[in-house]
Amino acid sequence: MFADIIVDLSVEALDRSFQYIVPREMEDTIAVGMMAVIPFGRGNREMTGFVVGITEQAAWPVEKMKKILALKTYEIGIETQLMQLAEWIRRQYGGTMNDALKTVLPVKRQIKSVEEHWLNFVVDEEEVQRELKHCRIHHYKAKERFLQGMLEQKGTMTTKTARNIYNVPKSVIDGYKKRGFLEVSDKRIFRNPLSVQMTEQGQDIKVLNEEQKAACERFTGEYNQGIRQTYLLYGVTGSGKTEVYIEMIKTQVYMRLIQKVLEEGKQAIVLIPEIALTEQTVKRFVAALGTRVTVLHSRMSEGEKYDQYCRIKEGKADIVIGPRSALFVPFDNLGLIVIDEEHENSYKSESPPCYHAREVAIRRAQMAGASVVLGSATPSVESYEAAKNGTYTLLELKNRAKNARKPEVHVVDLREELQQGNRSVFSRILQEKIRQRLSQGEQTMLFLNRRGYAGFVSCRSCGYVIKCSHCDISMTAHKSHQGDVDKLVCHYCGHATYMPKQCPSCGSPYIAAFGLGTQKVEEMLQKIVPKARILRMDGDTTTGKNGHEQVLAPFRRGEADILIGTQMIVKGHDFPNVTLVAALAADLGMYGGDYRCQERTFDLLMQASGRAGRGEKPGEMIIQTYNPDQYCIEAVKKQDPEIFYNNEMAFRRMAGYPPYTSMFLVLVTAPDKRQAETCIRCLKELAQKKEILCVGPSEAGLSKAKDRYRYTLYLKSTEDAELEQVKEYLEQQIHTQPWAHHCTVQFDRNPMSSY
User: Fold this and answer.
1) Lowest mean pLDDT among 48-52, 310-314, 323-327, 436-440
2) Which pLDDT tens digit goes with each residue over 394-438?
3) Is the pLDDT of residue 196 over 50?
4) Measured between alpha carbons, how far is 247 from 232 in angstroms, rounded to an integer?
5) Which domains does the chain have, with CATH numbers?
6) How far apart are CA 650 and CA 361, in angstroms?
7) Of 451, 457, 462, 454, which Cα lies nearest the Cα of 500?
8) Strand 443-447 relative to strand 408-413, pairing
9) Helical residues (DSSP H) of 321-379, grouped into ranges
């Protein structure tokens, strides 16, 4: 027996499998996905690899092959299905098998588990009482406290409780162990990844309205018939999509109550776009489904991640909630994948392989015999088109839950504000509405999709703009805790430097920060409403493990009047007392240089409007813009998504953009500009030989990043298979041609952001 093993994932150059002999004693144990220790190279250096295939056929002369040294059976292995998924991701999106395996791998190493030591009486209560009486007579206070505590705890407690609650020294416990009074047992505890403890008792969810019931009945009826497909749950903001998800998941997880043949039940994955939504979402799911729910995200410690994977492997968790990476949990009885806010850009990976969670979820569901539910108030154009042509099954929720009204939307033309003498970032109607909410004890959310104090730093004498020394992008000004603009940060690579006193170009002292960021908005707002309690939520205020919840929790409790933030505040949050939402600069993302700009603007504004009036009180939204006639803004104003979709789909069809054409962006980066130019030009020539439509090459929008020059080329085709073949051909050439040796080439299928 032979095993194909891909060597240590940290070694990028070894992106292929190597075949090893499987010793006889391992033949019954080895399986695809296991970690193995192997001798590698001429020096037989011990390395770790992953078993990606098992065969009876040797690819090389057996006498030249080496044997596997050991199998790491204690490690969390990769399911065969996930290995196949990794290969599909590599073919579909480009990149190496190493990249794909890193994407689907759960935990790469074993983390030391946490155990509690339990003390248990092994003598009867009468003997304990005699011992207690003896201790009281002789004034053995520590022993008395211990015995009394054990009786109060019904004869069992942890050593931690004995030490911290009853102040019992270790010597007392050791003494009673020697006398045979008690025994010590170890019980593993799982690290809690949540900032608060959740109740173990599941509660009934809210009563579903007629629209929600209809959606659930359609889904459950088809599921019980063995129909597995992709559904688009298209519901307005506040329509109760989460309650529908929960009801659908109940059908899966508790299927054993209906069908005895499914004794182990089904499992579900729920993807959410932002870590900030984790706490709120988990609370709702735990309340309905109990502690069979767990969570996974990047801000958890390695120990917390490891414990949750162990819970899953041991069958102690049936539902996993988390961002994109939660899609790869090792469920072996998957019944349902839910992708909430499926339109979000965060579901698209920005590093190789540049996969989209929606497409990978559908593929994994097909492999597992599961269903997929995509939920959104503003579905992506791709999903909307798929629902219209019957590829997805459309489930609609047209009304808000609890009969809540849609918000009233006001569009403010900032050109008119300027003409009438208002140079403030806050329009006159917005200032009036904010003061009104403060007087009524209601809350306000202000949205600006740019963090920091100001957008750029420029010299008013010569016009010089301070750019990052490593990237072709302007530095963003940030204020210190002392209130001074003293730090410049590149939001692309993270490079930071001090604010200069003089212009580096002409020496002028007239150098200052211009533009607008969330920090500056907070400062300006405090001057307008000095008594208001203001919180700010952006990348600067949410660092740390529980950074998001530390801002959201006090706002949820009513300890603040106004929340200022970037796009993270408009996604999925439910604050019943928020009655006013404002987009301060709706134009910021409208002209970003790629074909999805209008869609992103529409999504953000529509989602933002959905944060207002989710309780009993009516809500209002104010959109401040210099372009009020854009169709994406008109659609939000009228709360009519069809206006946007009809215009956007006509534009996409005419221009040949997804979903009507498939695209591959080819990004070439190199430390030398000429090397990058040569590589991208050669790639275009090779692609044209395959008669594929090429657009470019050209300098990337960000022409230099992290000291590397960037060039882009677009490949377009109406046939996915044709595009994939060309990509595979180019990848083969990249590994062999000398002009690519010093370059990095990245493929991005149907990119969702500009480069």
Assistant:
1) 310-314
2) 988 777 655 667 889 999 998 888 888 888 889 999 999 999 999
3) no
4) 16
5) 2-104 (3.40.1440.60), 114-189 (no CATH), 210-402 (3.40.50.300), 408-451+517-652 (3.40.50.300), 453-516 (no CATH), 662-749 (3.30.70.600)
6) 28
7) 457
8) unpaired
9) 357-368
Give CA 413 to chain center in angstroms.
35
Query: Which residues have C-beta within 8 Å of that of residue 668, sequence separation ≥ 6?
Result: 676, 679, 680, 683, 697, 710, 711, 712, 713, 743, 744, 745
- Residue 704: φ, ψ to 5°: -145, 130
Residue given tokens 């949050």 in the structure block: 573
Type of residue numbered 624: Q
Distance CA 565, CA 522 (A): 9
Burial of 750 (0-12, 13-18, 19+ CB in 10 A): buried
Residue type, 80: T
446: exposed, middle or buried (Cβ count in 10 Å: 0-12, 13-18, 19+): buried
What is the β-pairing status of strands 182-189 and 511-514?
Answer: unpaired
Report the candidate in 249, 266, 255, 256 with the shortest Cα–Cα distance to residue 334. 266
Is 670:709 a contact under the CB 8 Å cutoff? yes
pLDDT at 263: 33
Helix (H) or strand (E) holding 114: strand 114-121
Alpha-carbon distance 66 to 59, whole Å? 12
Q: What is the tens place of the pLDDT at every residue in 314-354?
A: 777 788 888 888 899 888 888 888 898 898 888 999 888 99
Spatial CB neighbours of 48, under 8 Å, sequence gap ≥ 6: 7, 8, 35, 36, 37, 38, 72
For residue range 639-663, what is the model confidence (pLDDT) as tens digits? 889 999 999 999 999 988 899 999 9
- Residue 593: predicted pLDDT: 65
Q: How many CA atoms lie within 13 A of 404 on its CB side?
A: 25
- Please give, one letter per residue, the 3-state secondary structure of 272-295: CCCHHHHHHHHHHHHHHHHHHEEE
> Whats the size of the chain, residue-wise?
755
Element (H, E) at 723: helix 720-736
Indicate the SS3 state at residue 688.
Answer: helix
Which residue is it, tokens 């929606």?
A: 358
Q: Give per-residue pLDDT as tens, 674-691.
A: 999 999 999 999 999 998
Report pLDDT for 198.
45
Write the CA distances from 151 to 129, 156, 184, integer angstroms.
Answer: 9, 8, 16
Q: Which amino acid belongs to residue 251?
A: T
pTM, entire model: 0.76
Query: Would you say 337 and 112 are in contact if contact means Cβ atoms under 8 Å apart?
Result: no
pLDDT beyond 60 at 709: yes
Amino acid at 584: L
**C-alpha 603, offset from chain centre:** 18
Cα 332 to the center of its chain, rounded Å: 22
The answer on pLDDT for 451 being more than 60 is no
**Residue of 105 and 522 predicted with greater confidence:** 522
